[in-house]
Amino acid sequence: MKQVSILLFICLTAIISCKKKDSKAVFIRISNQSAYTFEHVIVNTYNQPINYGQIQQGQNSVYMKFDVAYRYAHIRLTAGGKEFILQPIDFVGETTLASGKYTYSLSISDFNRGRLELKFKKD
Predict the structure, then answer these.
(1) CATH 2.60.40.2890 fits 26-122, yes or no
(2) Is 35:56 a contact under the CB 8 Å cutoff?
(3) Which of 38, 60, 104, 114 could bridge across to 55 with cysteines, CB 3.0–4.6 Å?
(4) Which of 73, 25, 35, 82 is nearest to 52 (CA)?
(5) For residues 83 and 77, what is the distance between their CA atoms, to the nearest angstrom?
(6) What sign for the dihedral angle of Cα 15, 19, 25, 26?
């Protein structure tokens, strides 16, 4: 009986600790607001690159979990055979996002110059 109680205590502790970790997580999806299919979409919020793969025009990706994230990120993708990169200089003065779900809406503002625009929103 004592062993069963100990095992039950360990299981409950593990379940509770898993829920606490997810409650602090940030979930981000990508919304493709361009006229092109995005391919090889890599988002790196803070030393945590995540591959979103391909996102069709006008579509949203699934939410991906990040430990630390900001209102913007380093983003690299290919569209129409051309590579686009959004490169933040730093995160000085920025605060990390609170736990929850967010969307990075991406559009191409100038295809020839490779300009990628990001709009941020809390879902």
Answers:
(1) yes
(2) no
(3) 38
(4) 73
(5) 6
(6) positive
